[in-house]
Write a structure and sequence with these properties.
Elements (H helix, E strand, L loop, with lengths): L1 H4 L1 H4 L36 H12 L12 E4 L4 H17 L3 H19 L5 E4 L1 H18 L1
Antiparallel strand pairs: 1-2
Helix pairs in contact: 4-5
Length: 146
Protein backbone atom coordinates (compact mmCIF):
# COMPACT_ATOMS: atom_id res chain seq x y z
CA UNK A 1 0.00 0.00 0.00
CA UNK A 2 2.76 2.40 0.94
CA UNK A 3 4.72 1.64 -2.24
CA UNK A 4 1.77 2.44 -4.51
CA UNK A 5 0.89 5.54 -2.46
CA UNK A 6 4.43 6.92 -2.68
CA UNK A 7 5.30 5.57 -6.15
CA UNK A 8 6.25 8.99 -7.57
CA UNK A 9 8.62 9.74 -4.69
CA UNK A 10 10.11 6.23 -4.87
CA UNK A 11 10.54 6.20 -8.67
CA UNK A 12 14.09 5.74 -9.93
CA UNK A 13 15.19 8.69 -12.04
CA UNK A 14 18.79 7.68 -12.66
CA UNK A 15 18.26 4.64 -14.90
CA UNK A 16 20.67 2.68 -12.66
CA UNK A 17 18.76 1.67 -9.50
CA UNK A 18 20.89 -1.43 -8.80
CA UNK A 19 24.31 0.00 -9.64
CA UNK A 20 24.41 -2.01 -12.87
CA UNK A 21 27.50 -3.03 -14.78
CA UNK A 22 26.41 -3.07 -18.44
CA UNK A 23 25.61 -0.28 -20.90
CA UNK A 24 21.82 -0.51 -20.77
CA UNK A 25 22.00 0.92 -17.24
CA UNK A 26 23.79 4.04 -18.49
CA UNK A 27 20.69 5.65 -20.03
CA UNK A 28 18.13 7.60 -18.05
CA UNK A 29 14.78 6.25 -16.88
CA UNK A 30 12.51 6.57 -18.77
CA UNK A 31 14.83 6.07 -21.71
CA UNK A 32 15.21 8.96 -24.19
CA UNK A 33 14.08 8.52 -27.78
CA UNK A 34 17.71 7.92 -28.82
CA UNK A 35 19.97 5.19 -27.42
CA UNK A 36 23.15 7.05 -26.47
CA UNK A 37 24.06 10.73 -26.70
CA UNK A 38 27.54 9.60 -27.68
CA UNK A 39 28.31 6.09 -28.90
CA UNK A 40 30.25 4.33 -26.15
CA UNK A 41 33.60 2.75 -26.86
CA UNK A 42 33.54 -0.77 -25.45
CA UNK A 43 36.89 -2.10 -24.28
CA UNK A 44 35.87 -4.32 -21.36
CA UNK A 45 33.08 -6.79 -20.68
CA UNK A 46 31.37 -4.48 -18.18
CA UNK A 47 32.07 -1.16 -19.83
CA UNK A 48 29.61 0.93 -17.81
CA UNK A 49 31.10 -0.37 -14.56
CA UNK A 50 34.62 0.52 -15.69
CA UNK A 51 33.36 3.92 -16.82
CA UNK A 52 31.72 4.61 -13.43
CA UNK A 53 34.77 3.47 -11.49
CA UNK A 54 37.12 5.66 -13.54
CA UNK A 55 34.97 8.78 -13.18
CA UNK A 56 34.22 8.23 -9.49
CA UNK A 57 37.96 7.87 -8.85
CA UNK A 58 38.36 11.30 -10.47
CA UNK A 59 35.58 12.67 -8.24
CA UNK A 60 32.77 13.26 -10.74
CA UNK A 61 29.90 11.36 -12.28
CA UNK A 62 30.33 12.23 -15.97
CA UNK A 63 33.15 13.60 -18.12
CA UNK A 64 33.99 17.23 -17.40
CA UNK A 65 33.63 18.28 -21.02
CA UNK A 66 30.37 17.35 -22.70
CA UNK A 67 30.17 17.70 -26.48
CA UNK A 68 26.91 16.71 -28.12
CA UNK A 69 26.00 16.35 -31.77
CA UNK A 70 22.64 16.01 -33.53
CA UNK A 71 21.47 12.37 -33.56
CA UNK A 72 20.20 10.79 -36.76
CA UNK A 73 16.95 8.88 -36.17
CA UNK A 74 14.57 6.88 -38.39
CA UNK A 75 10.95 7.99 -38.61
CA UNK A 76 8.20 5.65 -37.51
CA UNK A 77 6.28 3.96 -40.30
CA UNK A 78 3.16 1.80 -40.42
CA UNK A 79 4.60 -0.18 -43.38
CA UNK A 80 5.64 -3.20 -41.30
CA UNK A 81 2.21 -3.49 -39.69
CA UNK A 82 0.43 -3.11 -43.03
CA UNK A 83 2.66 -5.74 -44.65
CA UNK A 84 1.96 -8.08 -41.72
CA UNK A 85 -1.80 -7.63 -42.12
CA UNK A 86 -1.64 -8.35 -45.85
CA UNK A 87 0.64 -11.34 -45.17
CA UNK A 88 -1.89 -12.66 -42.65
CA UNK A 89 -4.69 -12.34 -45.21
CA UNK A 90 -2.49 -13.99 -47.84
CA UNK A 91 -1.47 -16.87 -45.53
CA UNK A 92 -5.02 -17.54 -44.33
CA UNK A 93 -6.38 -17.41 -47.89
CA UNK A 94 -3.74 -19.77 -49.28
CA UNK A 95 -4.24 -22.33 -46.50
CA UNK A 96 -7.98 -22.44 -47.21
CA UNK A 97 -7.61 -22.17 -51.02
CA UNK A 98 -9.36 -18.80 -51.16
CA UNK A 99 -7.72 -17.40 -54.26
CA UNK A 100 -9.22 -13.90 -54.47
CA UNK A 101 -8.27 -12.87 -50.88
CA UNK A 102 -4.90 -14.55 -51.49
CA UNK A 103 -4.23 -12.43 -54.55
CA UNK A 104 -5.42 -9.29 -52.71
CA UNK A 105 -3.12 -10.10 -49.77
CA UNK A 106 -0.12 -10.77 -52.02
CA UNK A 107 -0.66 -7.63 -54.12
CA UNK A 108 -1.15 -5.60 -50.94
CA UNK A 109 2.15 -6.88 -49.51
CA UNK A 110 4.08 -6.15 -52.69
CA UNK A 111 2.44 -2.72 -53.18
CA UNK A 112 3.24 -1.71 -49.60
CA UNK A 113 6.86 -2.84 -49.98
CA UNK A 114 7.23 -0.89 -53.22
CA UNK A 115 5.60 2.22 -51.72
CA UNK A 116 7.95 2.07 -48.72
CA UNK A 117 10.95 1.55 -50.97
CA UNK A 118 10.27 4.77 -52.85
CA UNK A 119 9.50 6.84 -49.75
CA UNK A 120 12.24 9.43 -49.26
CA UNK A 121 11.00 11.02 -46.02
CA UNK A 122 12.38 8.34 -43.71
CA UNK A 123 14.57 10.09 -41.15
CA UNK A 124 15.10 13.15 -38.96
CA UNK A 125 17.67 14.56 -36.55
CA UNK A 126 17.32 15.15 -32.82
CA UNK A 127 18.82 18.60 -32.33
CA UNK A 128 21.99 19.13 -30.34
CA UNK A 129 20.07 21.34 -27.90
CA UNK A 130 17.47 18.62 -27.21
CA UNK A 131 20.23 16.07 -26.59
CA UNK A 132 22.03 18.51 -24.28
CA UNK A 133 18.87 19.24 -22.24
CA UNK A 134 18.02 15.54 -21.94
CA UNK A 135 21.52 14.51 -20.89
CA UNK A 136 21.98 17.38 -18.44
CA UNK A 137 18.64 16.54 -16.80
CA UNK A 138 19.86 12.94 -16.46
CA UNK A 139 23.15 14.07 -14.92
CA UNK A 140 21.30 16.34 -12.45
CA UNK A 141 19.08 13.42 -11.41
CA UNK A 142 22.12 11.18 -10.92
CA UNK A 143 23.90 13.79 -8.80
CA UNK A 144 20.80 14.54 -6.69
CA UNK A 145 20.23 10.82 -6.01
CA UNK A 146 23.90 10.00 -5.31
Amino acid sequence: MSASKNRHALRDRTGDPWNGRTLEWSVSSPAPLYNFAELPTVSTRDQFWAYKEAHLAEGHVHPKELHYQPIHMPKNTPAGFIIAMFAGIFGFAIVWHMWIPGVVGFIGMVATMIARTFSTDTDYYVSEETVRKTELAHIKEMISNA
